[in-house]
Design goal:
Elements lengths: L8 H5 L12 H6 L6 H13 L6 H8 L7 H4 L6 H11 L6 H14 L3 H16 L14 H5 L12 E4 L3 H5 L1 H13 L4 E2 L10 H5 L3 H14 L6 E3 L2 H8 L1 H5 L2 H9 E3 H6 L12 E5 L2 H7 L3 H7 L4 E3 L14 H4 L1 H18 L6 E4 L2 H9 L3 E3 L1 H7 L4
Parallel strand pairs: 1-2, 1-3, 3-4, 5-6, 5-7, 7-8
Length: 390
Amino acid sequence: MSGPLRLDPDTLNACVSCGLCLPHCPTYRVTGREIASPRGRIAAMRAVEAGTAPIDAEFRAAMEECVSCRGCEPACPSGVQFGSLMQGTRAALPAPPSRRRRLAEQLGYRVALPHHWLLLATTWFAWLGQKLHLVPTRLGLPRLSARSIFRPLAVPVGGAPDAWLFTGCVMDAWLRDTHRSAARVMAATGAAVSRPPASAACCGALHLHAGREHEARTLARRVIASMPGDAPVVVDSAGCGAAMKEYGVLLDTLAARAFSARVVDFSEWLAGRTLPNMRTTGVTVVVQDPCHLRHVQKVHGAVRRVLAPAYELVETADDGLCCGAGGAYSALQPELSRRILTRKLDALRSAAGGADPIVASANPGCMVQLRGAGIDARHPADLIAEVLDE
C-alpha cells in the first residue's frame, strides 16, 4: 500500500480486464465510456498508484460517478472486491474543490446524520418547506408526512429482546411508517422486539459511500455498543444492512465480526419464522432488488419467499440493474442518476405489461427514487403488514 491511494495491491491486481463486468455496470451501460466501467476505473487506480497519472479532476470525476452498486462483483470471475477499491480510493481523494460542497458535506456527514434529533428537526423544516412549495424537487426528498414524523415509534428501547429492529437515521426520519410495519410483522411472529437508542441511529453507510472511513468506524462502534447480547439485529434498509454486515471488515475486531454475524435483512429474518394469518390477494407485484441486498448481502431471494404467499410476483429482465439512487448519488450526480433510472423504469413497466406497477423494494433510497418517478414502490414490510389478519 505504498501509492497515493494506499490500495491493497493484491486486490487491485486481481482484475484481469476481461470485461465481463461491463454489462452489469449501470454507468457504463448509459455512457458506453471505458472510464465509466469497473475495468476502466481500476485501470485508472493502477495508473495513479504507479505514479504515471495524477489525482486530477478527470480521475475524481470517474471515481465519483460510480454509483457503488457493486453489481460488478458477482459477475467477476476473478472475485475482484471492487467495493473495497472504490471505498479506499474515495477515502484518499483530497477534499472537493467547491466550498459549497465541502460545507454541505460537513453539515450532512458530521452534524445531521450522527445527531438524530437534529436530523428530525431538519426533516420538520423540510416538511414545512414542502407545504409552502419552497423545496425544489431536484433535491429528491420524498413527500414527507407530519403524522409520521410526529408519532413516535411504538417499540421499546433497549432491554433483552428476541430481536432488535435497527431504525437508522434517514429512514427513521423520512419513512418511519415502514418501521411501524416491520415491527408489527415481527410481533405477529411472536417475537419481542426492541430498538437501539436514537444516539446510535446512524450506521455509517452513507459515510462509507463518500470515503469517510474514520467517521464510519466511529459510528459503527456506537451501533455495536447499542445492541448488546446475541439477539439478531433486523435491518429493513438494504444499504444499512450491507454496511453493518461488513463491520467485521471495517473494524477488524472479534466484537465487530460477531456483531456482523447477527445482522439480518428484514425479509431474511422473516423467511425463517412462521407468520400466521396472511391473506392471499392475487395482486401483482414487480420485485426490484436493491443493489446492496442482491450484490452485497445476496439474500434477495428472501423477499420473494415472504411475499409469494400473498402476492403474484413478477420479475424484471434486467438482471437486477441499479435504479440510480445510490445513497446520495441522485443528488450528487443527477444527470447520470436520471439516465440509470430511465432504464430501470423501462424494465419495471415492461415486467408489468406496460403499466405502472406496484413495486416491492427493500431499500429506502430505491423507494424514494422510484416514487419520485411516479412508481408505487413499497417496502416488503409494508406489503406484508397490509395482508395480516389480526
